């Protein structure tokens, strides 16, 4: 399969970096803190901003209480990097994009301390452009994060390819107007017929270009 784009937008957790263990470890500690079932929390959290999850499980909490939980979680997650590693193909793909001069950004629901810490812990190249929790008024699955990601590259969303692993992020990117490549096949994947490709690993992706119009060609190989 071949796709064309002028820019590339990447989710971080579960797409570029494997941080599953630390995410679930910290959120289970939060579950203990409020007396909530671990599995219920794990089933809900992925791809969503932390505050969205806090409001879901603490619907009657005051803003002060929510902020207190948020700060506690941010501290826990920003200090715990045990087991965070780059997912297969991530470092090579980002390095290739840098070599080609292709614009790319990380679009994550994480805060700056968490996102920057995990990027560094995984040894991934540093992006020139970030969209983090602090920059959005509405997080995934709202289209705003990927709209801002495309804007940071000075491109319309339809000229960008977004890489996502979570249903909330896939919905966000599609609603923003991006072409979407789903990394893995998440349970409950929305709008499957609108997704450009579903891959098992970023090792399946190669990129060439740009052409005279600034487009890069992205090739999706079969499962490796």
TrEMBL record:
Keywords (A to Z) from UniProt: Hydrolase, Metal-binding
GO function terms (MF aspect): sugar-phosphatase activity
Keyword Lipid metabolism tagged: no
Root EC class: hydrolase
InterPro entries per the UniProt record, alphabetical: HAD-like_sf, HAD-like_SPP, HAD-SF_hydro_IA, HAD_sf, PGP-like_dom2
Signal peptide location: none
EC number(s) per entry: 3.1.3.23
PANTHER family the UniProt entry points to: FRUCTOSE-1-PHOSPHATE PHOSPHATASE, GLYCEROL-1-PHOSPHATE PHOSPHOHYDROLASE 1-RELATED
Listed NCBIfam families: HAD-SF-IA-v3 (TIGR01509), PRK11587.1 (NF008610)
Protein name from the UniProt record: Sugar phosphatase
Species the sequence originates in: Providencia zhijiangensis
